[in-house]
From TrEMBL:
The modification N6-carboxylysine is found at K167. Its cofactor is Zn(2+). Transmembrane segments: none annotated. Carbamylation allows a single lysine to coordinate two divalent metal cations. This is dihydropyrimidinase.
Length: 585
């Protein structure tokens, strides 16, 4: 493995401090528009056309390309000690792979073992990550046991350490799993703190009994994994988690939804108006569980994860349909890689195979291929499910998840027409297997800008170890809490720098209707103009005013790249969740 590149001192990075991206089509969750983006010192400073920029600025011509907000992967496990193994990707290798695929921020999990301190595990992960990450990151924390000490440490993590999300496990009995009464108390504490409750939803008791029964019948190979945890075992736990969360009025985020039944449960609660959010995975969208029945143990074991990849090939279509209809809201990777040698420890007992697959590098391309290229979703929806929704749910928006004035300069220049073939021989992850082996994907990140630095440069990967920073995630994300929070709780929302994309005078003059020719139009979403009362967590200075708003669009998906003749209708509304004020934590 090549030695990691050392971090370059800021005073030696002058040539990388300024960047102009010209002639691209800017895509936000709210729509698309043609324009140029000027970046300085890691922040988006100007958006528009005919920009006045300083000398010495590097220029990238993005004609015929999309400009996307950098992807946010809210579910990875780097250097994770699990099932007797340590996952192969560390924070350097994992974030390097993420950047190569167009992801510019990851959120990992600090998961203590039973009776271990949450604070100590958090500190351990900060020490592992801070000097290695090539892109920005945040942390969730796992709740694997319950006591007054756990409750106290949750509060400290929220108010002093920048953590706003906690994950419970309803599976992995006698290891990570907690009981329903503990889950109730954890959800109740999350609600009191204004944190995001997360859950791995599978019925751990049933899985243990099913596994015993299968092993006693001689079913020892990887095919036994899915048999031990069928769809209804995931759906039952998903419903149970939603029921428990409702009892304490707590919003809920369900990680790695892997079955049609579980997805339908989440969709049902959302239709009832309940704030539950579902996360699909690249693995569940890009492949299925049929290889787990292969006579090739290495191939079969490579696909073992939990909840399992489903053997029904229609599952991945249903999951993408749910993402398209907002039944599910986010895509992650659950990247937890193990080598073929590590996977081999379960050769005689499927319950011992380390659970985990790759995905942090290929997530963006897989979602584009299965979503946009297939015609199921539009580019703005792609941005929403790969970046913006995660940023909003974990209170990182609009510093993350948007191309707007004052946002972090995490930008992907995406070629929608270029293709690549996924392979373990060419990927950047620290494992010799790839579950997407041989898949051809349309959509390639030709340039990836991370905090203003070009880290993929015309296809060449140029990451810098330690370039990333820890991003605190404030409590009470408006997107999650606005439907439940009291006025007193809303007063405690963190006040953050504003993101102004138009002056008031400019907004009043920009009611220009766009035309899409003969192609079917994308319905435009309202454009957000953020006031000084909106939320963003990283606090990188005041947002600039007076620039063109390029976030709204009524463009057709079929022929939008390279067409500079269209302009969008723009409406203005309050920020997501309304306006808020209060102290920072």
């Amino acid at each position: 493995m090549a030695a990691p590149v050392k971090k370059v001192p800021i005073h030696l990075q002058s040539s990388q401090n300024r960047l102009l991206i010209k002639n691209g089509k800017i895509v936000n969750a709210t729509g698309m528009q043609d324009g140029d983006v000027f970046v300085e010192d890691g922040i988006i400073k100007q958006i528009g056309t005919n920009l006045i920029i300083p000398g010495g600025t590097r220029v990238i011509d993005a004609r015929g390309r999309y400009l996307l907000p950098g992807g946010i992967d809210p579910h990875v496990h780097f250097s994770f000690e699990f099932m007797g193994q340590t996952s192969a990707d560390d924070f350097y290798q994992g974030t390097k792979a993420a950047i190569s695929g167009g992801t510019t921020m990851i959120i990992d999990f600090a998961i203590p073992k039973k009776k271990e301190s949450l604070l100590e595990q958090y500190d351990k992960y900060r020490l592992m990550a801070d000097d290695k990450v090539c892109c920005d990151y945040a942390l969730h924390c796992g709740i694997t046991w319950w006591s007054d000490k756990v409750k106290q440490e949750m509060e400290i993590l929220c108010k002093e350490r920048g953590v706003n999300s906690f994950k419970a496990f309803m599976a992995y009995k006698d290891d990570l799993m907690i009981r329903d009464d503990e889950l109730y108390k954890m959800f109740e504490t999350c609600r009191q703190l204004g944190a995001v409750a997360m859950v791995h939803a599978e019925n751990g008791d049933i899985i243990v009994e099913n596994s015993k029964k299968l092993l006693s019948k001689g079913v020892k190979g990887p095919e036994g994994h899915e048999q031990s945890r069928p769809e209804e075992v995931e759906a039952e736990a998903t419903n149970r988690a939603c029921v428990i969360a409702k009892q304490v009025n707590c919003p809920l985020y369900v990680v790695h939804v892997m079955s049609k039944e579980a997805g339908d449960v989440i969709s049902k609660y959302r239709e009832q108006g309940w704030p539950v959010y579902g996360e699909a995975l690249a693995a569940g969208l890009g492949t299925d569980g049929r290889p787990c029945c292969s006579s090739n143990y290495g191939l079969a074991a490579a696909h073992i994860m939990s909840p399992p990849l489903r053997s029904d090939p229609a599952t991945k279509e249903r999951l993408m349909d749910l993402l398209a209809s907002d039944g599910l809201q986010v895509t992650g990777s659950d990247n937890c890689t193990f080598s073929s040698k590590q996977k081999a420890v379960g050769q005689n007992d499927f319950s011992k195979i380390p659970n985990g697959v790759n995905g942090v590098e290929d997530r963006m391309s897989v979602v584009w291929e299965k979503g946009v290229q297939s015609g199921k979703i539009t580019p703005p929806r792609f941005v929403e499910i790969t970046s913006t929704n995660a940023a909003k749910i974990f209170n990182l928006y609009p510093s993350k998840g948007a191309i707007g004035l004052g946002s972090d300069a995490d930008i992907v220049i995406w070629n929608p027409n270029k293709t690549r073939v996924i392979s373990a021989k060419t990927h950047h992850q620290a494992t010799d297997i790839n579950i997407f082996e041989g898949m051809e994907c349309h959509g390639v990140p030709e340039y990836v800008i991370v905090s203003g630095r070009v880290c993929v440069d015309d296809g060449e990967l140029k990451v810098v170890q330690g370039h990333g920073r820890f991003n605190p995630t404030p409590l009470y994300p408006p997107t999650v809490y606005d439907s439940l929070a009291t006025e007193a709780e809303k007063a405690n929302y963190a006040p953050l720098p504003d993101l102004i994309t138009e002056t008031a005078d400019q907004v009043s003059q920009l009611h220009v209707n766009g035309s899409n020719g003969d192609a079917a139009p994308i319905s435009p979403s309202p454009i957000t103009v953020f006031s000084d009362q909106t939320n963003t967590p990283t606090g990188k200075g005041a947002r600039q005013e007076g620039q063109r708003n390029l976030q709204g669009s009524s463009f057709s998906i079929s022929s939008e790249v390279g067409d500079t003749s269209k302009r969008s209708g723009i409406r203005v509304h309050n920020p997501p969740g309304g306006r808020s004020s209060g102290g920072f934590w």
